[in-house]
From TrEMBL:
It comes from the Bacteria. GO terms for molecular function: N-acetyltransferase activity. PANTHER family: ACETYLTRANSFERASE, ACETYLTRANSFERASE YPEA. This is Ribosomal-protein-alanine N-acetyltransferase. It comes from Kitasatospora acidiphila. NCBIfam families: rimI.
Length: 156
């Protein structure tokens, strides 16, 4: 993801997360740390005609990493794009030497939870009222890089 992707990402962000969308400033701040040696890694999935179909972001500090965001446009869901984006984050987390990868997912988002489980994430807790202003709980999930071996073939 580059600075010129922020506007199309924001359009998708507002469509997919109308209640708790990130701001442009949040993306600018994240991208400021997404340089070689920085603590962030952001990627976009682009269609053949150049439209952004999905995006994902990772924060990695020390031996811990966290999925900051992952999103796929409605018309591209169910085609494996979410799995590709997640695999990119898992690979980057492991490349950076992180021992684990954490994420939060809405408790009412069974589809995303299934994706994460298929990639080796396990539930480790609940964050009450995490998603605001809707006051929806988040399921915290964890992937242990030490006990899970991931390859591109595992998730194709």
């Amino acid at each position: 993801m580059r600075w010129w992707d922020i506007e199309p990402v924001m359009e998708l962000e507002l469509q997919l997360f109308p209640e708790d969308a990130w701001s442009r400033g949040m993306y600018w701040s994240e991208l400021a740390e997404a340089h070689p040696g920085g603590s962030r890694h952001y990627t976009v999935a682009v269609t053949e005609d150049g439209a952004i179909a999905g995006y994902a972001g990772l924060m990695a500090i020390g031996d811990e990493s966290d999925v900051q965001t992952i999103a796929v446009a409605d018309q591209h869901q169910g085609r494996g794009l979410g799995a590709l984006l997640l695999t990119d984050l898992i690979t980057e987390s492991a490349r950076r030497g992180c021992a684990e990868l954490l994420l939060e997912v809405r408790v009412d988002n069974a589809r995303a939870q299934g994706l994460y489980e298929r990639h080796g994430f396990v539930p480790v807790g609940i964050r009450r009222g995490y998603y605001q202003p809707a006051n929806v709980d988040a399921l915290v999930m964890r992937l242990d890089h030490q006990t899970t071996n991931h390859t591109e073939e595992d998730h194709g």
